[in-house]
């Protein structure tokens, strides 16, 4: 190990940051630098202290042990056997194996090797970019973290090296970042490939598509170069203080992702729909498919264009439109869809309108409105008890109304005029009352909403059930932001940002694949709970020192517990056989890897291929 210095100029001053690094052996005799510990800015005395600690850390154990290689009181050993010192038995390098193995199985289920292998060939120096991409996607699916943490900690604590048969160089810091650049240009081709895989594996249909948008924020500071997509805008993450990008996503009703697009963070919901329609038609052809969208995304102009293209839609509609249709809807009969859910249908020449009332939603919105109104009325009553300076009064009333949100319209506040004498600091008071007419109108709309569709002659109950499928795209966003940790983004370059989102998209594809497999074979079990259950299976290196100064190393994953075996059996998977032992010189690291997935033959060192030891007790 050694100390490495990083220099950076900031505000005209040079800063020196220190970290502890070491050279790691890779495949083919290559070596690469791995950062072990980040120290930050340290003084000269602290630097000397760390150098001393590293020197002590690099020294041997200081212990020697005399071993009898050929004891005179024993017959010569069998040439095909080896004697081990059982008292020197040790367990080393515990690492997570089960979830990593599940990732490899899901990767094979989707056949992603067939897509990525010709697109990401090994580099001239032997870097296997496909393995690097697998490491990034596995980390995003199992334990989302930054590329820096993958380099420093996660890769060493996982069994990806054993499963992929690669060297530790795939986790080199710069290699992980460069892989994002190499994968990004193949994004649209990936969409085409996945379309075929969803159809082959799960008989997915693309006649109905769900479209929605979300945002993801950054831990980076503007300004950014011209054309950069990081902008301030409406934050769905409730982080208006951070720049963001908007991600538009299209999925099938079963949740299988079709395509996505990254747009500037200040993009309005309705601004990119036309461009996305063109993209989907390029990918999947111009068919008479049905689009499901939430309110605020389509405009009158885009809906008109969608009808001209021959497309169909079921979209949410702002409640303001209800005022124009109340008279027409009043004479239509209610149709019961479910318990506590009923709908009305208002047909038209080009569009039909579905009016939905959900009793559970009525109760929820009514309780929320009552709670906010009680808080507002209590605050206003406290302010009206005694006069306060006019300027301060206006500020406090405004703050109380802002806290109440849209329910502030149900309370009418009569403000006094500006005092003639004393100016804005003169004491003043005010009056307020409940606006009964506005409250009565608001109560009629609680728990009720409108849907628009150009599917004429349809059953209103079926149209409402159709619209409910929109929850799948919302579930996709929750998975991306929750289980897959797409936010916040720490990358500083826009291509790296889009590469980061691409890796999260691939991880989501694997997540959806596992979800579909569990739905068919183990209903009720979620992908996250299955990965956590399998993640408890560990792999360890079992070391046996031999009497001839070498070590036998057995890489072994722990036997699955009954509940873990139940999950494996439900998925129809068969764990691979334990890898064979390898023989190493005492105190050195063995670079050859032992395990390949899907029953492929394991890699064994040349020495071990000739020499298959039998363990004999010493």
Portion in helices: 25-40%
The tally of beta strands, per DSSP, is 22
Query: Number of helix segments?
Result: 20
Question: Structural class given helices, strands, pairing?
Answer: alpha+beta
Termini gap: 36 Å
Major β-sheet strand ordering: 8-7-6-9-10-18-13-12-11
Percent strand equals 15-25%
Sheet with the most strands? 9 strands, mixed
Q: Please state the average pLDDT score.
A: 82
Q: Evaluate the radius of gyration.
A: 32 Å
How would you describe the shape?
globular
Please tell me about this protein's structure.
The longest helix is centred in the C-terminal third of the chain and has 28 residues, at 494-521. The protein has 20 helices and 22 strands. Mean pLDDT is 82; it is low at 56-77 and 587-618. The radius of gyration is 32 Å and the shape is globular. β1 (2-10) and β2 form a beta hairpin. It has 618 residues and is of the alpha+beta class. Strands 8-7-6-9-10-18-13-12-11 form a 9-stranded mixed beta sheet, sandwiched between helices. Strands 5-19-20-21 form a 4-stranded antiparallel beta sheet. The protein has a 3-stranded antiparallel beta sheet with strand order 1-2-3, sandwiched between helices.
SSE topology sketch:
Layout: E1 2-10, E2 13-25, E3 31-40, H1 44-58, E4 82-84, E5 90-96, H2 98-110, H3 112-116, H4 129-142, H5 147-154, H6 160-164, H7 173-183, H8 187-202, E6 208-217, E7 244-251, E8 257-264, H9 273-284, E9 290-293, H10 300-308, E10 312-317, H11 322-330, E11 335-338, E12 341-346, E13 352-358, H12 359-384, E14 388-389, H13 390-404, E15 411-414, E16 427-428, E17 431-434, H14 436-445, E18 448-453, H15 460-468, H16 471-481, H17 494-521, H18 527-535, E19 538-545, E20 550-557, H19 562-571, E21 582-585, H20 606-610, E22 615-617
Parallel strand pairs: 4-22, 6-9, 9-10
Antiparallel strand pairs: 1-2, 2-3, 5-19, 6-7, 7-8, 10-18, 11-12, 12-13, 13-18, 14-16, 15-17, 19-20, 20-21
Helix pairs in contact: 2-4, 2-17, 2-18, 4-7, 4-17, 7-17, 12-13
């Amino acid at each position: 190990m050694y100390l490495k210095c990083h220099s950076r100029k900031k505000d005209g001053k040079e800063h020196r940051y220190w970290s502890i690094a070491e050279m790691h052996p890779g495949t083919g005799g290559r070596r690469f630098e791995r950062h072990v510990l980040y120290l930050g800015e340290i003084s000269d005395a602290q630097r000397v202290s760390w150098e001393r600690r590293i020197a002590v850390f690099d020294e041997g154990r200081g212990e020697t042990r005399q071993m009898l290689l050929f004891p005179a009181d024993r017959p010569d050993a069998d040439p095909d056997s080896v004697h081990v010192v059982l008292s020197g038995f040790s367990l080393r390098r515990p690492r997570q194996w089960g979830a990593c193995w599940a990732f490899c199985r899901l990767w094979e289920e989707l056949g992603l090797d067939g897509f990525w292998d010709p697109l990401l060939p090994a580099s001239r120096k032997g870097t296997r970019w496909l393995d690097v991409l697998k490491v990034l996607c596995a980390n995003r699916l199992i334990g989302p973290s930054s590329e820096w943490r993958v380099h420093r900690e996660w890769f060493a604590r996982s069994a990806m090296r054993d499963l992929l048969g690669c060297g530790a160089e795939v986790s080199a810091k710069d290699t992980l970042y460069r892989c994002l650049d190499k994968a990004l240009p193949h994004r649209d081709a990936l969409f085409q490939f996945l379309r075929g895989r969803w159809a082959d594996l799960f008989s997915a249909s693309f006649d109905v598509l769900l479209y929605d948008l979300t945002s993801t924020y950054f831990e980076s500071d503007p300004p950014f170069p011209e054309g950069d997509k990081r902008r301030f805008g409406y934050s769905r993450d409730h982080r208006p203080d951070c720049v963001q990008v908007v991600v538009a996503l299209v999925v099938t009703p079963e949740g299988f992702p079709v395509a996505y697009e990254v747009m500037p963070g200040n993009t309005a919901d309705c601004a990119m729909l036309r461009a996305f329609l063109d993209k989907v038609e390029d990918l999947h052809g111009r068919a008479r498919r049905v689009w499901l969208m939430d309110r605020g995304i389509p405009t009158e102009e885009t809906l008109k264009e969608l009808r001209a293209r021959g497309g169909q839609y079921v979209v949410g509609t702002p409640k303001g439109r209800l005022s124009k249709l109340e008279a027409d809807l009043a004479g239509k009969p209610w149709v019961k869809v479910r318990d506590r859910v009923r709908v009305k249908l208002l047909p038209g020449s080009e569009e039909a309108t579905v009016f939905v009332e959900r009793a559970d939603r009525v109760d929820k919105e009514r309780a929320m409105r009552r709670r906010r109104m009680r808080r507002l009325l209590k605050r206003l009553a406290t302010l009206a008890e005694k006069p306060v300076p006019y300027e301060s009064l206006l500020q406090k009333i405004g703050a109380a109304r802002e806290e109440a949100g849209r329910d502030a319209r149900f309370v009418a506040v009569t403000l006094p005029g500006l005092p003639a004498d004393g100016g804005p600091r003169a004491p003043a008071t005010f009056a307020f009352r409940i606006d009964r007419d506005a409250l009565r109108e608001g109560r009629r709309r609680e728990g009720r909403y409108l849907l628009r569709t150009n599917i004429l002659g349809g059953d209103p109950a079926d149209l409402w059930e159709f619209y409910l499928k929109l929850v799948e795209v919302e579930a996709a966003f929750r998975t991306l932001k929750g289980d897959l940790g797409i936010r916040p983004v720490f990358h500083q370059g826009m291509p790296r940002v889009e590469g980061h989102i691409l890796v999260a998209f691939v991880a989501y594809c694997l997540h959806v694949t596992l979800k579909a497999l569990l739905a068919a074979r183990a209903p009720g079990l979620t992908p996250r709970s299955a990965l956590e259950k399998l993640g408890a299976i560990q792999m360890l290196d079992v070391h046996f020192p031999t009497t001839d100064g070498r070590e036998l190393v057995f890489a072994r994953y722990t036997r699955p517990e009954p509940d873990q075996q139940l999950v494996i059996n439900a998925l129809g998977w068969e764990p691979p056989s334990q890898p064979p032992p390898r023989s190493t010189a005492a105190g050195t690291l063995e670079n050859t890897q032992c395990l390949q997935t899907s029953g492929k033959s394991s890699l064994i060192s040349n020495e071990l291929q000739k020499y298959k030891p039998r363990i004999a007790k010493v």
